[in-house]
Amino acid sequence: MKSWNIVSVPDAKSRSCICSLFLTLALICAVYFTGSALMAKDFRAFSGFTMNSTKQNGQCGKCKVPPPREEKQESHVTENVQNNKCQKKCRPLGSEALPEGIISKTSNLEMRPLWGDVEKKSPHSVNLLGIAVGIKQKEMVNKIVKKFLEHDFVVMLFHYDGVVDEWNDLEWSNRAIHVSAMNQTKWWFAKRFLHPDIVSEYDYIFLWDEDLGVENFHPEKYISIVREEGLEISQPGLDASKSEVHHHITVRRGRSKVHRRFYRLNRGGRTCDNNSTEPPCVGWVEMMAPVFSKAAWRCAWYMVQNDLIHAWGLDMKLGYCAQGDRTKKVGVVDAEYITHLAVPSLGGNSDVETVIKELDNNSLQGKNLSDSDTLAAPVEKFDNRSLVRRQSYIEMKVFRERWRKAIKQDQCWVDPFQSQEKRKTGT
Fold first, then answer.
1. Where is this region: Disordered (predicted)?
2. Residue 412: inside a domain, yes or no?
3. Domain with 347 in it: what CATH number?
4. Is residue 229 in some structural domain?
5. What CA–CA distance (Å, rounded) separates 342 from 210?
6. Residue 143 contacts residue 119 (beta carbons within 8 Å)
7. pLDDT at 372 over 70
8. Spatial distance between the Cα atoms of 143 and 159, rounded to a whole number of angstroms
9. How many C-beta neighbours within 10 Å does residue 46 have?
10. 246 and 168 in a common domain
11. Would you place residue 20 in the very low, low, confident or very high pLDDT band (cuts 50, 70, 90)?
12. CA-based Rg of the chain, rounded to a whole angstrom?
């Protein structure tokens, strides 16, 4: 008798359920793989955007030059556009439309001929003298400029009285740069015509007044001493026997090459001793004859306010531009010294002989003071320009108030000369 294996055949309802299950699984798989592909593409696009944004914002120097047009592929168009934007961000503002090779970021004050080839001369000047002048002090200015031109300085005259043509009879007049504006001081001129990018080719910038005697001053020797001593901000010492002295730190010390501080007993004022770390005891020069290195001037230019007139108050803060320790990098050069005649200028009457006689009767009688000499309070002697003196005091107070407000607003700024104890207490 035969045995039969009976295979049960699912009915129509069961077959319909199995088909539905397979279709559902297939649909789920299709959705999964499609979604994964789209997410990967979005992630790559997002990653590329983030990287390009980073390059644009902070790593512009790493941008690559786009390949030639014939080598571009459609897939690289977006990347090249972003690279172009990055490169433009690296350039000076306003130069984005120019090729990199044509951009000139700095300049100088060298004059060029109207026609013909440029004469081949010795290397161009590397130092600059800027001086505010009036026609009444023409003879004094002539002596100053002739001495500086002998040492290949670029000379820039700031005419505060508007008189320019009357200087043409001087042999050097056509070698100097003349800038004229009525009743403006040298700081007004310097802020507008001595931008750091313009004077970046000059190692030292002299910003002097016109009432200075230079019989005992040699610019080349002075610069040699400044380099040797590492001074970023300096001034020549004053001959006390012939000069009007307002601050004893500027007086020439006869037994030294350079001094950076002075000493004063506490007689109703501030004591200056070996422990002093602030101006005017140390790290300070007067504003009549300052000399800046190019790095120091780049910093100081930003500190000169647009409405600054006589620069009272600015002298107390110049040490922040000394490129380091102001007690070492700011000083007065004694070996090369000048005379401060204190001739009334900026529209005032001048009588040089009368001023010199008056100074001979009221000077420090030729004292040559060393760093160890103890000095009394500064000589309080001013000319008769009371309105100028009053304006200067007002300006000094305004500048100091601006300085305090600037410190409060800039939470990131830390005073490099403030002691750690003061930083902790906030004083």
1. 60-80
2. no
3. 3.90.550
4. yes
5. 9
6. no
7. no
8. 17
9. 10
10. yes
11. confident
12. 36
Same domain, 133 and 45: no
**Residue 43 and residue 189 in one domain:** no
Q: Are residues 91 and 145 in the same domain?
A: no
Cα–Cα distance between 377 and 372 in angstroms, integer? 16
Q: What is the DSSP string of 143-171?
A: HHHHHHHTTT-EEEEEESSS--GGGTTST
| pLDDT of 381 | 42
With residue 89 as reference, give the H or E element that holds it.
Answer: helix 77-90
| 104 occurs within a structural domain | no
- Statement: residue 27 has pLDDT above 60: yes
Task: Label residue 32 by pLDDT band (50, 70, 90).
Answer: confident
Do the domain assignments include residue 216?
yes
Domain of residue 37, residue span? 20-66+74-96
Is 60 exceeded by the pLDDT of residue 42?
no
How far is it, in rounded angstroms, from Cα 260 to Cα 423?
26
Whether the Cβ atoms of residue 210 and residue 132 lie closer than 8 Å to each other: yes
Asked whether the whole model's pTM tops 0.85, one would answer no
Binning pLDDT at 50, 70 and 90, where does residue 62 land?
A: very low
Strands (E), 151-259: 154-159, 177-180, 204-208, 212-213, 233-238, 258-259
